[in-house]
Amino acid sequence: MLHTQLQTMLALQDEINTLVNENWRAQNFPWYRAIWVESAELLDHYGWKWWKKQQPEMEQVKLELVDIWHFGLSLELQQGTPQQVAEKMQQQLSAERAIAGDFRENLEAFTLKTLASRQFDLVGFAQMMADVELPFDELYRRYAGKNVLNRFRQDHGYKDGSYQKLWSGREDNEHLAEVVQSLDASAENFSNQLYQTLKDRYPGPVKNLA
């Protein structure tokens, strides 16, 4: 199951990166920098100010981790095909099971390693998942949903401004959350089902895509 989920997510990330820029691998975008900036936003949502009362905004924390995962997958894909990278990532994730610890310290360690290596610290990321009780199945559902929504936006006019983000008085993110809960995430065509359901709900002009 893990290997299949990894392959699916890597393939989805390759697709969305190619949709945005056909030659994205050759561009050598600074994905590590995006991870660094997202990590700062993540810490803000978790809370770090000792001079005021703060409670971790766990939903936002998990959303930020999913965003970081997008950039991490892109870094991994710079080094091989989705199949090759999935094998490597599965070995890393299976080698050692992380035990929940101090999230702030582990986030800082993850960020420092990211900046030093300019690569994705998969083990450090898995540690943060354990810290906030984000199981891999949930990461998969959240990632697949966000990825499909990003692709749907691109396909329906996000770049030229014709995309409608509000559907029947609700943002597309809200529709996405509802759709994800209604589908079987273990299905092989989960992402395709997500896309089709969003397409069925979308009130704007729907393009005929090959």
Automatic annotation (TrEMBL):
Name of this protein: dUTP diphosphatase
Top-level taxonomy: Bacteria, Pseudomonadati, Pseudomonadota, Gammaproteobacteria, Cellvibrionales
InterPro entries: dUTPase/dCTP_pyrophosphatase (IPR014871)
CDD domains: NTP-PPase_dUTPase
Organism: Microbulbifer harenosus
